[in-house]
Amino acid sequence: MQHFPPYYLEIVKPDPRGARYQLLHKGKIALHTASYGAEIRVGTSESFNFYAIMMPLQGSGGVMLNGRDVTAPISLIGPKQKIDMRWSIDHEVLMMQVPLGAMEEALEAYLGDPPKEGLRFDPGVDAAGALGHALTMLASTGMLPFAATKLAEHHFEQFLLHTLLSSQPHNHSDALRESAAPWTPAALRRAGRYCEDHAGEPIHLADIAAAARVSIRTLQLGFREHLQTTPMAYLRSVRLAHAHADLLRIADTGSRTTVTEVALRWGFTHLGRFAALYRQTYGRLPSSTRQGRQ
Prior knowledge:
single chain; 294 residues; alpha+beta; Arc Repressor Mutant, subunit A; 2 domains; 22% strand; AraC-bd_2; transcription regulation
């Protein structure tokens, strides 16, 4: 979880039920719900290095950023913004915290180059919009079973990042729309190179589209037209080729690395499917290749 800078807290009226806190998710992005257990006024006198999206789950309150009221039901607080919040005695708030570095990395992947100026979001989030629906879903779920593995956690966080960047207006929104250019051979090369360079990482369809600098829909149509496949099927073939090369190397060197270790290294978590796909592609089982049998 990101650390808050020094802040002031004024307790207007205490609540006998006391404070409540629940951590929903902790990774690159943190999600939690909290209540101070009182009617409060809280704020900071200096800025912080993360983005915070705050959605009241119960009670009422208000948020001021740099002296201006946020009139929308959900508030988005960014770096270099000083906050002054007021919450009723029965309040409970869902907060999503995104590190500055993670947000800048996602934006750069969309733009293809480092942004020339810092990312500044509109502070008011529409509860009926894509981000508002995502936060409502998280609040109603309570626990997030799809964040149980590193791969699922990565996809979950990428979903939140891309939803935030694509749906909430900010000072780079026009540039993002321009970056969704028509399909070109250069876009195909960028997508292929990204798959090769990141095959061992838990990447998502949106990651490939951002690297290619096209929209997800354009990416899918481009792969279908030029390669007669899908982006994720192409990524799977790249991973399978890497696994095949590893198994050949193990057979040559006598390494004790197992087929399971090789499969997991390249993102194949279902070993039966990996074996079937490998046999379909190379004509024999991965265990046969590992043992050096023709």
